[in-house]
Amino acid sequence: MTTTISTLAKVNNGVNVTALLGAREALGQAPEAAQFKWRASCEWVTGTHSRSVIGNFFGLGAEQPRDKNFRVEADHPKVFASEDNAPTPVEIVLSGLASCLTAGVAAVAQRRGIQLHSVKATVEGDMDIQGILGMDDDVRNGFDGIRVHFDIRADASEDDIKALVAQSQKRSAVFDIITNPTNVFVTVN
Amino acid sequence: MKFSTTIIIGAGQSGLAMSRHLTDRSIDHVLIERGEVANSWQTERWDSLRLLTPNWQSRLPGYAYDGDDPDGFMNVTEVVGYLKRYAGASGAPVQARTKVTRVRQVDGGYEVATDQGPWRCRTLVLASGACNVATVPAVAAGLPPEIASLTPMQYRRPEQLPDGGVMVVGASATGVQLAREIRASGRSVILAAGEHVRVPRVYRGRDIKWWMDAIGAMDLRYDAVDDIDRARRLPSLQLIGTPGRETIDLNSLRKAGVEIVGRLAGMHDGKAQFSASLPNHSALADLKMNRLLASIDAWILASGQEDRFPGPHRFEPTEIDPQIRLGMDLNDGSVRTVIWATGYRPDYSWLDVPVLDRKGRIRHDGGVTAAPGMYVMGLPFMRRRKSSFIDGAGEDAADLAAHLNLGLRRSAA
Fold this sequence. Notes:
- The complex is a heterodimer.
- By secondary structure, chain A is of the alpha+beta class.
- In chain A, 34% of the residues lie in helices and 23% in strands.
- In chain A, helix 3 packs across helix 4 (158-170) and helix 3 (89-111) packs across helix 5 (173-179).
- In chain B, strands 1, 2, 3, 4, 5, 6 and 21 form a seven-stranded mixed beta sheet that branches. A five-stranded parallel beta sheet of chain B has the order 8-19-9-10-15.
- The A-B interface holds A 31, 159, 162-163, 166-167, 169-170, 175-176, 178-181 and B 195, 262-263, 265-266, 268, 273, 275-277, 280-281, 283-284, 287, 290-291, 358.
């Protein structure tokens, strides 16, 4: 036990693992507090340009206010005859996947007492746009496949680094969202 | 009403090991068994099943395998015979064909209602097993009604299934074994694999179970594990006990013609959806296997026994088809049967004592429940990694019998 604590104390990836473990403990006692609701609202600007605002979320049994609202814009590039004011929504999805996995790598590394020096994820998704253009019903709209490559420098063996990345995928919300089906209900007033 | 100081519910390996220790301590007791000794083994397992542990490892208090094939794997008939002989040799007081219908707390102990009349006891040991009910996931509700749906407890042999393809859901010991034998019977088989634990049958000349015992992995205590809840939820090892000591894993199944897909994640309008997480689940399993092999290598090195065993090596990583499918239409007739090899759980429907958590699992500290004088046995990683194995029953029974005895003496004083 002593050795574990001293190893963890030396490692600083900027992740408060003690707080995360404490939260898990507390939620074990009160599982209803683990029910979260994440939200975004999106407003059309013009053309394919839109602006989302991300503010409060619900969790730990209450509305959780934030210090500020975040804005995320999306558009399409000029080859789609758009203005390219912002990344495409599918690029934001890729960025969300990379961010989620990267955060996971840091958290798992901290938990395992591994000091990180640099973590870089590059993501590429293949898409046949005959799907979104409605040209071929056999082609899906979304990605045919997504590849994520991690470049990680850390004080750990190659297998330990691979295990960080694997564990991060195992606990990643966005990885789960992309790899498993989700019911989506869209309504209109 | 009959009385016994201790009542043990269940006469499998756990109950019999406990009985032996109580006898040694002269604590009067009775084993209440719904069928005969080793009932679950006899009535709730498929025909071809063999133990995953070698014969020599079926050690019980005061009893050991003495046949001529110590490295072989007992089939179900042999396990039943083995446990019956043990019951006879220890003179275990088994009250057979007696089904417990309700257990409740009463002043100074427990009342155990059975279909053969009620019993009272001061202390109670639940040794009714960890695998009474097959767990079926919620997605099963979406299965088209014309497709046969079986749990491993209903499955006996491939010939029993309707003609046509079979989807086996779950790739732990049960799922991989059933996929293997159903495929060998000539049917097309799809195996949906989520999180799984891969190990070779033999490494560096010895059975993997020999290694796990030798390096002390099976003796690891529950209170020495960082996250015991997770350790207890770990799926069973992908293993099969065959005379040829073959390794079974996703690679061997793939070579045998089984189609491997990801975890069954959804079922809508008769269409099955498979998770795209199989590459990661396989990578996790490969890494975990290699950590186990590295710990075996380290143990050999540290104990100065390099000359005694063949050299270290690693196995091929799990091969994943890059065009792995993410869904299939179950209405097209290619799959006629689905087998849910998605785990087991104990049945406590008769237990009217508030010791269960919100998910219906029994709360315990190494087998000691919060209800005075009530113990549980045989659950995964209950006191040690080997708690749910025949080989683990003895040490758990010794510990819990000592605790139980202390409680009786305290209340008598």
